[in-house]
Amino acid sequence: MRTFGGEFSRKQRVSLAGTSKSVESREEILERSRLEREKRRKRKIENEKATVIQAAWRSYVSRRKTRRKLRAEWVARFGEKGVLVEEANVLTKECIGCLIAFADPEELGDVERLARVCDMCCSVGLLNTEDRAIDQRILWARELCQLGLRSLALHTGTFRTYLQQPFSSDRSIYGFRDHSERVAHSLVMFLMMIFSKRSWQGCTMMDHIFGVSLLRPDLRTQAGKELVNYLFEDVSEIIREICQPLYVEGQHQNGKVVPCAETLVTMCLVFYFSAQHDIVNGRIFPLMSVDKVFHTCPSLLPLRTKLWCEAIAYIDTLNCNSDNLKSYIKPKESMEYLLTNLIECLEVVPNSEKSHDTLKPNVSNRSLVVFMALVESILKDEAYWNISAERFVHPLAEADTVIVLMNSLQSLDDMDLTGSSKIRDVSQERSDFVSIVCSFITRLLSYSNDPVVQTKLILTLAIKVNMAGLLWQSYLRDNAGAIISDGLKGKWMIIMSLFCETFATALHVFGDEGLYVRGFPLPLETVYDNSSPKEGVLHLLKECLWKIVWKEKRPHRGSSTAEQRTKLLKSGGKLLTLLHDRNGRRRFAPQEAFYSDHIPKESFYSAAVASIERHEIEKMHQAISSGDVASDSEDEPQSSSKVVDILQYAYPLIPFLERVKIFQSIVQAERRNVGPDVSNFGPSLFFNHGMSQERFLTVHRGHVLEDAYHAMGPHKSNVDVRKRVRIAFINEFGEQEAGIDGGGVFKEFLESVIKESTSLDVGLFKSTMDNKLYPSPMESSSTTDHLKKIEFVGLMVGKAVWEGILLELPLAPFFLKKFRGAQPDVDDLPSLDPEMAKNLQYLIENPTSISELGLTFSITETIQGTPRDIELVPGGSSIAVTTANVAHFLHRVANFKLNEQIKAPCDYFLRGFHAIIPKEWVASFNDSELQMLIGGVEGDMKLDLTDLENNVVYSGGYTNEHPVIKNFWRALHSMSKSQLSDFLRFVTSCPRPPILGFSSLEPPLTIQMVAHEDTNTAERLPTAATCINLLKLPPYDSADVLLTKLLYAIESHAGFDLS
Predict the structure, then answer these.
(1) Whole-model pTM?
(2) How many other C-beta atoms lie within 10 A of the C-beta of residue 647?
(3) What is the pLDDT of residues 800-825, one digit of tens each?
């Protein structure tokens, strides 16, 4: 018995035990039925496919049999290779029609027969007739063209020699070396005839095809109208095969000789464009996907505008979708060639609208928008980029290509990016267009794995294109308010990131001279204008950074918004820092202009303290090294992580004093971790004089540096300098000076070490023309002992900052820049050698005098008394400085003087300093701020006596109303700036006030009354205990006596014996 599926049913089984067969469940029956239906469906599909395959095979066999029969009949009538064609009437169905029916371009025999017929058609004129047979002859013409082009494409190896020869219609000049060249010549001559205007003027009644106007020809017949479309269904792919060997073989490099294949391709395309005006299709893509098609066929250069329009018009119909193009362009590498060729077309596109040549069509702004959208779509294809990366650097990543692209976009008259753009006429907002351009460039940068290519691209955009100026004028200036007020959605972060990146690059290249003198990339008043501080670049920049860091919630890691935010944080923070540094060197805006107006003063510092307690700021350098931005966690207050982001990327937004408070909180937290233990230097020499068994470092006056270096230098690995250090001074008589080191003696010790080590006679440091110090260059500090001493000095400076002790140590700004890991550049050269900087700037401003100086990329330096020539680049002594490379020469000289020449001593100094104060802790201070962190408040202003008076403490009977105290303040007000500094040094051991004011002085400055009954008060001098900031002031009877005694005490510069 059979089932519905055709199989025999299973024989029924009978249980001998008497149990009946189990009954199938409903689910099992349904599943079995489904499987049977699926099996029947598959069998039906297989049968249908088998029928199609069999029909196709039978058709192929039948066609092959028919072709063999027709070929045999044709050969019997016209000869094996058509030798009898000349004797017969070629323009007949029996000759041409039969040949078209059986000819196979892959068979060389058929190609030879085709060449014979084409040769005869050229002789008698296939299209030179006006009778009723013109329709039939046009159909023959298109079929013969197809066969001829396919034959040339399939046999390029056989016909290569002929195709690379110059074209000529005169057969007499040819001495064909073999039969293949004669066959190729016949095919090419026929195709030239078909594509020539003389052949079509008679049959189409056209006055001209290649005249002033390129109107679509008024073809008289339906067959004539279909000829071009039919011919070009595959002709572009065929032309690609014909063109490709030319460039591969390296032919036609000089452009003096036009190969035959190139002439054929050019005429074919001219014919195509002349006969087609409004038709939009994708048939041109295979040709445009030829590798460097305009280098392969330079004769196509005049057709670039037409090729651009044809390709872009069809791309627009595909909605700029690269996936849709993949069906037209194969292999994937061809997409790369398409973009390269389109950009080469774009180089001449803008000129077409300004030209009066009617041969060139109008190029709309829409086409540029479509092209940029296409590029952005293609660049999203990961596989496409992977293929490109394996082969070579992508041509779109070439700087010259970007120049062509950006200049083309700027040169259009009606692309008024600074006003109302006509892009709106094609339903594209100006902001959308700018965002497409920025997305395109950003994706180029992100997908280029070569840092050299990335740098080249950024330099091109920043210098040659002035991308920052273009983006400001076209988008950011008019949309600044909307960006700040959240009224603008979209890709504003991408635009702002690219703006910041290119602006910062321009500042690096042109330096201070570019910003302050040239006004490049934007005029200085555009960056900040005192008359309108809320409208410049600086205001927009700080508002954007504050918005993405503090105002908006941080997006999820890995999202596109998070990636854009990170890029803007890095590029925007870099630009803000550069402007902040330049403002410190040469002020163009008040310092408050960099501060954010939205800082919550109460909660910001508390959030920073919370971050410190969770060691977040301690880990900040790890995020900097990895290039990542911290993410919010569930157990972490969002405000504290925002503090970390601001300090990491945009510290100029925070007022200097607030950053100092955060820094001191970090140091205090770390000091608590280290503990209050005393460093071990051995028992005191004066233990027998009643002193406790605490560990002391004994140093001799006049030899403080040597004693301290041998006791606690870098070679002493068992000494933890971060712990408390107690000092005992030995005077010139070999006796210990009086005074217990509660901190004040150590402060004097540090000042003595710094004063002795920075003496120019010691040779560890050199001074600039304005008496700022920096480590001596390599010739004077090349020994290991000198370098180790410089490291020890750095250790002591770090210890002073660790302890909160201010030092009288003026360091050079370019050297201070190295403290936070930054490299000084050409803008910092005046702080080292202003005369050299002036001379180098003269070369930039007077390039005509460069050749007269005979400069090379080398510099003469005196090393250990011997002049030596040092090459700034490999082989620099033989490279002349010219107007083309003078900027490079300037940067090389600055790099040598500021970095290479003093690299070793600076590295050793910073190694010691960072052993106490890590680089990340001071990364949020510029050079002038770091100088204040080390040495206190600088400037020409006198000591703020009002601040001091409000924070002083009185004891021993003194009050603020006591007559002696009133005389004391009158005396201070009468002192000069230097005398006030000496007074402050006398009481606190430091001549400058604390950065945060006297309210932060610990312990507070105290004035204590000292009076003895057995001593004349007027004869006593004021004394001080600097360890506790205590001034012991006798109760003098008059103001004159008080002033005289106080000046005598503070100007004597005595040691702790006075205390």
Answers:
(1) 0.68
(2) 22
(3) 999 888 888 999 999 999 999 999 99
